[in-house]
Amino acid sequence: MLSKFSKGRYHSLSYKLFENYLGRNYRFFLDENSSNLTKTIITEAQVLTNILSALLFLMSEVFVVVLIYSFMVYIDWKITLLLSLILFFNSFVLIKTISKRIKQEGINREIFLGSFYEILNRTFGNFKMIKLKSYEQQTLEIFSDISLKYSKSNIVNETLSHFPRLFLEALGFIIVVLIIVYLVYEKQDDISSSMALISMFILGLYRLMPSANRILSGYNQILFSYKSLDIIYNDMTYTIENLGNEEICFNNSIEINKLSFSYVKNKPVLKNISLVIEKGSKIAIIGESGSGKSTLIDIIMGLYESTHGGVYVDDILLNFENIKSWRSHIGYIPQHIYLFDGDIAQNVAFGDTFDEEKVKEALRKANILEFLESHHDGIYTDVGENGLKLSGGQKQRVAIARALYDDSDILILDEATSALDSDTEKKIMNEIYNISKNKTLIIVAHRLSTIEECDKIYKLENGELK
């Protein structure tokens, strides 16, 4: 029953962690390593259930020890006091030596496990480069070093965890001998009268020692795993976004009014930006790398909160109450497109549930539906992990279809075609201009050839709009 309760908490913990991560702001995911989040949900949550299990068993054994100890005090308090002093002293020694080492190995385990997830994530995410550079051996050596250190921490923990049992068994035997010697010395005339007392204490010790061992083992297991408790507690108590459901409409314009933004205090990335984007207009934002173009786009989309100033939609300030509604107006095509392992339809709709006709219409507008139906399995074509089975241009068109699926008022391209060759880029940009005739289009670009049909072009330089 205790195991069912403790192990059954894994679902609750992992679900709560995942919910918490999804509720955090976009900035958190830029600062956090995704492999650490995966490790916490999969491994640390499981380890925490082990702590809970150990704690429950420890409490049950403490109850047993108290009962046995009370019985022994009732039989002979002097001998029980002597036994208590011996047990407490030896337990203190074990805690200061064995338990201290186990705690340190628990800290090492968490560090090595984090590196373990990181090397796996890095390897599978850069598999092409590893093959190209012939880095298999170097990668294996790094993995081997981390794996050995992780295994060593677990080996040390398992080895030291068994020591208290062996130590306490030997101690129990010595105590029995001491009790017999003591009683023989006290009652030299008639030792037979003390046999009942000796039998009682031997029986008590026979049941007390295993309980004491389980208490120490549970305590050591908690120490070995306590780092998981720290990690999960910190992640559970992190403040999440509290977004309201207030509706916001986009009928006239987006106004950016004296907006400034800093990642680090007193080091502004954007400085006093003012800009008006009329509904239905086509505007471009250009500038050198690091000038703040993508940051400005992220603020317009409501992913960042400005340091000063704000973004107004039809004279209504974007805030936590209406930002969720505002995001639903935006179709976004990023530079780096992530396609998950599934079919085209799932990737366009960004989920397992989709409207087949809407998917086909979006793909038709992105000028890729005919190709998929002629050469593959149509909207059910498998894309592979991160779209590995598609070319760069095909991935880009799927991303366009994803942005069009919900028929958003605004299309935002954040250097969406910068990785394509000039001919493919020109074709895709022509398609985007054609399908966005009745939409507001915001383009971030390096190449001027991609923004020739824009109504206005703004340049960001050193965080200022020119």
Automatic annotation (TrEMBL):
Keyword match 4Fe-4S: no
Bilayer topology annotation: Multi-pass membrane protein
Presence of the UniProt keyword Secreted in the record: no
Record-annotated ABC transmembrane type-1 domain positions: 1-222
GO cellular component: plasma membrane
SMART domains per UniProt: AAA
Subcellular location: Cell membrane
ABC transporter domain ranges (all copies): 254-466
Pfam families, per database record: ABC_membrane (PF00664), ABC_tran (PF00005)
Annotated transmembrane regions: 47-71, 77-95, 166-185, 191-209
GO molecular function: ABC-type transporter activity; ATP binding; ATP hydrolysis activity; ATPase-coupled lipid transmembrane transporter activity
PANTHER family, sorted: ATP-BINDING CASSETTE SUB-FAMILY B, ATP-BINDING CASSETTE SUB-FAMILY B MEMBER 6
Protein name as annotated: Phospholipid-lipopolysaccharide ABC transporter
Organism: hydrothermal vent metagenome
Higher taxonomy: unclassified sequences, metagenomes, ecological metagenomes
